Amino acid sequence: QVQVVESGGGLVQAGGSLRLSCAASGSIESIKAMVWYRQAPGKQRELVCGITSEGSTNYMDFVKGRFAISRDNAKNTVYLQMNALKPEDTAVYYCTAIIETSHGPDFGSWGQGTQVTVSS
Questions:
Q1: What are the pLDDT digits (tens) for 40-99?
Q2: How do residues 21-33 score in pLDDT, each as one tens digit?
Q3: Which helix (H) or strand (E) holds 41?
Q4: Cα–Cα distance between 79 and 117 in angstroms, integer?
Q5: Contacting residues for 23 by C-beta, under 8 A, at least 6 apart
Q6: Burial level of 31, CB count in 10 A (0-12/13-18/19+)?
Q7: Cα dihedral angle (28, 30, 33, 37), rounded to 10 degrees?
Q8: Alpha carbons 72 and 56: distance in angstroms, whole number
Q9: Cα 75 to Cα 77: distance, rounded to the nearest angstrom
Q10: What is the pLDDT of residue 95?
Q11: Are 57 and 91 in contact (CB under 8 A)?
Q12: What is each CA distance from 40 to 8, 29, 31, 53, 65, in whole angstroms?
């Protein structure tokens, strides 16, 4: 199993930047990709972006050009650099791993999330 711990959230003004971190531990060798999700109050959790073990990245349209995901394999950590933040980016941000299991790819454990609040 893979466990993650998110950090780096906070309060920022619109147009500002934050960098989130996600430290993974456990069965690191089973990780196929790392993904960031977010959940705003009263809304469903939504995918933000992801990065594969080979380094390929993918972003949802609403963050393209503003957010960047990266990874430091030596630290087993994934980062989410968020620039040009908007009030609608306000949410709890979660990361998790996509891991290889005996029954195919599956989600690893979810972290506690980190709150990002963007003021207008």
A1: 999 999 999 999 999 999 999 999 999 999 999 899 999 999 999 999 999 999 999 999
A2: 999 999 989 999 9
A3: none
A4: 18
A5: 4, 5, 7, 75, 76, 77
A6: buried
A7: -70
A8: 14
A9: 5
A10: 97
A11: no
A12: 17, 32, 27, 28, 21
Q: Which residue reads 């069965």 in tokens? A: 27
How many secondary structure helices (H) and strands (E) does the chain include? 0, 11
Residue 119 in 3-state DSSP?
A: strand
DSSP string for 44-59: --EEEEEEETT--EEE
**SS3 assignment, position 62:** helix
Residue 112's Cβ-side half-sphere holds a number of Cα atoms within 13 Å equal to: 4
Q: How far is CA 3 from CA 28, 45, 69, in A?
A: 9, 19, 19
Give the three-class secondary structure for 80: strand
Instruction: Please report, for residues 44, 59, 80, 90, the alpha-carbon distance to residue 47 in angstroms, rounded to integers and kept in the order given.
Output: 10, 9, 13, 14
